[in-house]
Design brief:
The protein has helices at about 15-35, 45-60, 80-90, 100-105, 115-135, 145-150, 155-160, 180-190, 195-200, 220-240, 290-305; strands at about 40, 65-70, 95-100, 140, 170-175, 245-250, 255-260, 265-275, 285, 310-315. It is an alpha/beta fold and about 325 residues long. The longest helix is centred in the middle third of the chain and has 22 residues, at about 115-135. The chain binds xanthosine-5'-monophosphate.
Length: about 325
């Protein structure tokens, strides 16, 4: 039997009961595979790696070592949530690496999108590799591979995502959710007690805010982007759009324009809102956000975020635009 093929008979996991049964089965399988060995996991805080972490903590507790690399390009509060949920609530063996300075140092002055992505991806591997070499006796590597990753089988996870791992890491893989679709991973995550917001998190690219801070990243503009994005997310949450819109975020371009703040000339960046709906991310339509809400968001961002003096809306569908504004 091909271990990477979902059996026809496998029921779609849609309820807590089915999720609990899946969890119980996987706990047994993981214990059998790992024995008293140690397992390493790169925990980004995304849905898949978070669910794998929670599942493995249940199965093998402190035999799991989670490494969370903060590349400095996370959204507001994300690394903090990883520490809170996994480090504190689930009492995981969590290594937190704040590598912000390394990443932002390498990215200084680099404006080309593909080059930025390559730098972020490569440095992620370097940091993870360094951390794992400090550990002893690790013989397994856990990954949040899910079934669509196998179906798009050129190993999307490996190179599309930040988190592609060094090839010379000779470790046996532990991939407990590799036969599950995304919706099933979420049901399992909730059954494991992970916070709803973590399990239903919208897609977020591996290189993070690095792709949305257009051109060469600077710390002040990255900070403005992070704050503006947090306001957009908060307002979408409060106004019932969070569960309705597939992906929404702010991008901040690297040019300034003239405005007026507190009666004085104020040169600032623009915050660009993008909010799209899609089923497969191959094409996307534009969500129509009510104007009163747009006015409110604009008001908050321009008043609360240092450095921003305009709010624009990107209404380009995919194609021709990509979902990310990169
Ligand atoms: P585009 O911009 O190509 O994005 O229309 C399609 C979807 O993919 C997400 N995306 C990524 N996801 N790692 C990921 O896991 C990445 O490097 C990456 N780049 C883009 C994007 O957010 C959108 O949902």
């Amino acid at each position: 039997m091909d271990a990477n093929k979902r059996p026809e008979s496998m029921q779609r996991i849609t309820t807590k009961e089915l999720a609990d049964a899946f969890i119980a089965e996987q706990v047994g399988l993981v214990r059998k595979q790992v024995g008293d060995g140690k397992v390493l996991l790169a925990l980004s805080g995304g849905v898949d790696s978070s669910v794998v972490a929670a599942l493995l903590i249940k199965a093998i507790g402190k035999q799991l070592v989670c490494v969370h690399v903060n590349h400095g390009l996370m959204r507001k509060g994300e690394s903090e949530q990883v520490i809170e949920v996994f480090g504190k609530e689930l009492d995981a063996n969590l290594i937190y690496v704040d590598a912000t300075d390394r990443f932002l140092g390498l990215l200084e002055g680099v404006s080309e999108p593909e080059k930025k992505r390559k730098i972020i991806g490569a440095e992620f591997i370097n940091v993870f590799d360094e951390e794992s070499r400090k550990l002893e006796g690790i013989s397994f590597l856990a990954q949040g591979t899910i079934y669509p990753d196998i179906l798009e089988s050129d190993g999307v996870k490996a190179h599309h995502n930040v988190g592609g791992l060094p090839e010379d890491m000779k470790m046996e893989l532990v991939e407990p959710v590799k036969l599950l679709y995304k919706d099933e991973v979420r049901v399992v995550g909730e059954a494991l007690g992970l916070p709803h917001a973590m399990v239903y998190r919208q897609p977020f690219p591996g290189p993070g805010l690095g792709v949305r801070c257009l051109g060469a990243i600077t710390r002040d503009r990255l900070h403005a982007l992070r704050e503006a994005d947090a306001i957009l997310r908060e307002e979408f949450d409060k106004n019932g759009l969070a569960g309705k819109v597939w992906q929404y975020f702010i991008a901040v371009p690297d040019f300034k324009s003239v405005g007026v703040k507190d009666g004085k000339r104020y040169e600032g960046w623009s915050a660009i809102i993008r909010a799209v709906n899609t089923t497969d991310a191959m094409s996307a339509t534009i969500e129509e956000i009510p104007y009163p809400l747009l006015h409110h968001i604009t008001d908050r961002i321009t008043h609360e975020v240092e450095g921003i003096n305009r709010v624009l809306m990107d209404i380009t569908p995919k194609p021709i635009g990509t979902i990310e504004f990169e």
